[in-house]
Amino acid sequence: MPALAEIADDYEFLDSEERYRLLIELGRRLEPMPDALKTDATRVRGCSASVWVYPTPTDDGRLHFLADSNAAITKGVVALVLSAVQDRPAAEVAETDIAAALAPFDLSRELSSNRTQGIPNMIALVRETAARLAGA
User: Fold this and answer.
1) What is the pTM of this model?
2) Over the stretch 10-30, which tens digit does the pLDDT of each residue have?
């Protein structure tokens, strides 16, 4: 997954249709999430599509997230959210202002409210999980 700054550089110069394609491509780049991890406990509430996010702590205290969605654009949005925090220490993830990191993408302007309504819940799940794991 490319760094968020790199994605933003590309995104800035694209028209709306190309931005959709970029999001879909980001979603395709997510590593596969095993079906066994797609449970009620890993499901993000408040999304119009089904979205699952699962943290996997690494030996060095970093968090690597697996995620999936049943909708291509939403899967791309999840990939965008995760690109802001992927493979960082849990404490750092918990403190990251992911919404601010995503601000340059102005997703509420580009996507329908149905597609963006779950973003705050995705962010909250990622940060809360990281905070819990950082404290463990």
Assistant:
1) 0.91
2) 999 999 899 999 999 999 999
